[in-house]
Amino acid sequence: MNPPLRPAPRLSCVVSVPTTIRDRIEQVLEKLPVPSSLAVQVAALDADRIDYFERVHELVDADPGFALRVLHMANSAQYRAGRPVLSTAAALLRVGARAAAGLMLADSIQRVFPALDRGARELWMHSVLAACFMRRMAPMVSNTRIDPGEAYTAGLLHDIGRFLMLAHNPQQFQMVEQARWDGPEELARIEVGWFGYTHADLGYLALHQWHLPEAFAVVARDHHRGVPAVAGEGKVESLLALLADVDGLATLVAREGLGWFDDAMCSAAWLEQNTRLRYRWDLTHRVSVLRSATREAHELLEALGLSAPEFVHRTAGERSPPAVCV
Predict the structure, then answer these.
(1) If pLDDT is split at 50, 70 and 90, which confidence band does 7 have?
(2) Crossing angle for the helix pair 97-112 and 88-95, nearest 10 degrees?
(3) Are 283 and 263 contacting, i.e. CB atoms less than 8 angstroms apart?
């Protein structure tokens, strides 16, 4: 297992967060665990490099526990085809290096923030759904290129500040969750009231301290700020625009389950009303892609040991209809 990262020096060079808030957050971060160096290495991988598969394979083999998870995933119902695979190389060929890298990153973060209670489990459900939605929708965005691996990582890490809040003070976190808030501005106000800072600012400074790429830190900081309505103006802007389209959907599907997609017309109507980007395929195709992404999220949670049976077993009577279907 890779040793944990050493805490970074105090972030005096980061000026995007007010000094008083930054000082308070740094005091919190000094007391919290950090992900292993494996997470940083995976997040920094460039999927366009010719040796991407080999680099992922090296990282998988460097962690025997994770290698077993990849083998389990490759032999799961979703990927099973023919004979069982017995080597990590064969497992990577079956599930894909990108999917394995995504699982590896989630596994590294989950070791730091295990789902020990309902609050943590719900955070994981939302974050994994957002990550899978981002990865599957990225190639479909019109007029720009969004790397699916980067989209997945941005989706997985965008709410890392909420994980940190839960780890720092579970009681205060639950008070925030139970408060009735309408929209990100009110959520930010409530978080500041209980913690003195927002989960976006906390996540931004944490990802800096963990030496993860700047783009992911900025997405974590800005995902509740004014989001561009179009992609293509830059990597961060494109990631933020795509995240704005899937963030609310991830919350909805985490609550309603895979059955939310059963009424394709209502699901398509919800997407038409609540997404802003232009996509290369029609709404029916997007619904199908998002349904598949939800199943992928379920498989990923299972591989992480975070069983989420409601994704596939929740009955129609336990679900709420999409808001646009009346």
Answers:
(1) very low
(2) 110
(3) no
Amino acid identity for residue 82 in this structure = G
Give SS3 for 4.
strand
Confidence of residue 134 (pLDDT cuts 50, 70, 90): very high
What span, in angstroms and rounded, lies between the C-alpha atoms of 316 and 259?
7
Q: In sequence order, which ranges of the chain are alpha helices (DSSP H)?
A: 19-29, 37-43, 52-61, 64-74, 88-95, 97-112, 118-137, 148-157, 160-168, 170-178, 184-195, 199-209, 214-222, 235-256, 264-274, 283-303, 310-313
Nearest CA-CA partner of 205 in 6, 17, 5, 7: 17
How many residues appear in the chain?
326
- Sole residue written with tokens 């709420």: 320
| pLDDT (tens digit per residue) in 280-297 | 888 999 999 999 999 888
pLDDT at site 310: 54
Cα–Cα nearest to 320, from 254, 272, 245: 254
Instruction: At 183, list the tokens.
Output: 């929209």
